[in-house]
Design brief:
alpha/beta, Rossmann fold, 8 helices, 5 strands
Length: 227
């Protein structure tokens, strides 16, 4: 069984990505991050998701992007709420964390080299998050090129492949695919600004996209919402 590093945030997309990696025959080595985000609920969700799929190795890397801030997720900046679809699709939102996926993939690349694998899975999506520059196919291609000259494995001729199986899917398609794979969405967390008891807010961009996806898939979202 080939191994792969799988980035798991605790969100819906990364849970489906992990299930897909397993379905494709990979032994997953799961990597999550405590990066100074607004809350720790998503790490708890990542652990639950990894445990539900019985992964052998799940590690949480500690980094602090609050040193730089610049995002509503890592700084004292309000999370946008109750935005329309047009507003969500206009430009790069303040919830973009500068260079986050570049940093995450660099960690994944390092672990992949230690493991001797050339495969990394990431649950990025260019449909719902088209405003995020590090969720685009061209970003992934550029990172693969970087890996070929930035690591001992790459210089030795090994190629790193970044799998982004959800990149061109709508949220409803992702939910349907996850349902087919038996993903327990009740274990996941997507909200940018949850209530103190962990309930999702229902009005941030991420909650709205998630709820819309479940509606379009004809399914009920099993997580708790504040309203």
């Amino acid at each position: 069984m080939p191994s792969a590093v799988v980035l798991v945030s605790g969100g819906l997309d990364s849970a489906v990505t992990l299930a897909l990696a397993i379905a494709e025959g990979f032994e997953p080595f799961v990597l999550s991050f405590e990066y100074g985000q607004r809350h720790h609920i998503e790490i708890k969700s990542a652990r639950r998701v990894a445990n539900s799929m019985r992964v052998a190795d799940h590690r949480v890397a500690q980094i602090d992007l609050r040193v730089f801030g610049g995002s509503a997720l890592t700084d004292e900046i309000a999370v946008p709420r109750e935005r329309s679809e047009a507003e969500m699709g206009d430009g790069i939102p303040i919830t973009y964390v500068p260079a986050r996926n570049t940093i995450f993939l660099s960690y994944a690349m390092a672990w992949a080299e230690v493991l001797g694998t050339g495969d990394i899975f990431i649950g990025i999506n260019a449909v719902d998050y088209s405003g995020y520059p590090d969720c685009r196919p061209e970003f992934l291609r550029a990172f693969e090129s970087l890996a070929s000259v930035a690591t001992k494995a790459g210089v030795g001729g090994a190629r790193l492949k970044i799998h982004a199986p959800l990149i061109n899917l709508s949220k409803s398609d992702i939910i349907r695919k996850g349902t087919d794979l038996g993903v327990d969405f009740g274990l996941t967390h997507s909200c940018y600004d949850p209530a103190p008891d962990g309930a999702a807010c229902s009005v941030c961009d991420s909650c709205q996209l998630r709820l819309k996806g479940f509606r379009e898939a004809g399914l009920v979202d099993p997580i708790r919402y504040a309203k």
